[in-house]
Hints:
Its main location: membrane. This is Cobalamin biosynthesis protein CobD. By secondary structure, this protein is mostly helical. It has one domain. It is 71% helix and 4% strand. The protein contains 11 helices and 4 strands; from the N terminus they run H-H-H-H-H-H-H-H-H-H-E-E-E-E-H. It has helices spanning 3-17, 26-41, 48-71, 77-91, 94-109, 113-120, 133-180, 192-215, 219-229, 238-249, 278-304; strands at 252-254, 257-259, 262-264, 268-270. The strands form 2 sheets. Strands 1-4 form a two-stranded antiparallel sheet. Strands 2-3 form a two-stranded antiparallel sheet. Helix 4 (77-91) crosses helix 7. It starts with a helix and ends with a helix. The mean pLDDT is 93.
Amino acid sequence: MTLTLIVLLAVGLDRCLGEPRNALHPLAAFGRWVGILERSWLDLAASPAKQRWAGILALLGAVAPALSCLLALPAIPALQAGLAVAILYFCIAARSLEQHATAVASALEAGDLALARQRVGYIVSRQTETMSEEDVRRAVIESVLENGADAVFAPLFWFVLAGPSGAVLYRLVNTLDAMWGYRNTRYRYFGWAAARFDDALNWLPARLTALSYAALADTGRALRAWLQFAPLLDSPNAGPVMSAGAGALNLRLGGPAVYHGQLKQKAWFGGDRSPELADIARACGLVQRTLWLWLAAIALGDYLA
């Protein structure tokens, strides 16, 4: 089975089925295993250096079982091809991302701000209880742009580059970063390794995603926004992705937001317009067009190889 066919089947499964229910998703079992490791290794009374070493060992303990199982599978082509399709399907979440964004847009369209706040809270880490309607629109568009890179294009990149093991390694490390990568009292040192490893794995896919966003919309504005605003944002990888995406759509995103009870003065970035309700669908459309572009590039590369 060719690489192109494997990728198309996995993307098609995601489009038709979406993500499995949490209890059936392999990441649910992984999350329980990570919880055991955290309880075993995290000692807030230890020195910062010891907490960092504990985080490194916990990271290795988290990802090693899954990678070992993959490497131990027999070299049967049909089995490997079918498993590759299933693994990539579990590693990407294009339809889930669109569904979450559409659910928020539907609540806003119905005039139910409380429900929109609740739904956007499923996909952002900031507090949503006091968000205005415009805050909700900005938050969901930022999430669509950022998670397009994290949940769609980075797994695809690592699958193409390193096969199922590459996609699994990326997805598990990205999940660890989402669980441990906070700069708070609990995870500042313990989560350091997960956060830095995730930054390293995301560096190139994030910039390819930003270039793709720019190529498929307002290219000049997207590149200018990337150069001007990405250095102002906290994440070395989300910065280019979100600023280029916001510029491509000519939307002004960012601004103050509440995290863990504290108001954070985030930078404004992107274009000139405040986002409107229809811009949520525009952001989803940009991610979808980018997916088609990547599929075409994978097919071309597979043909030429």
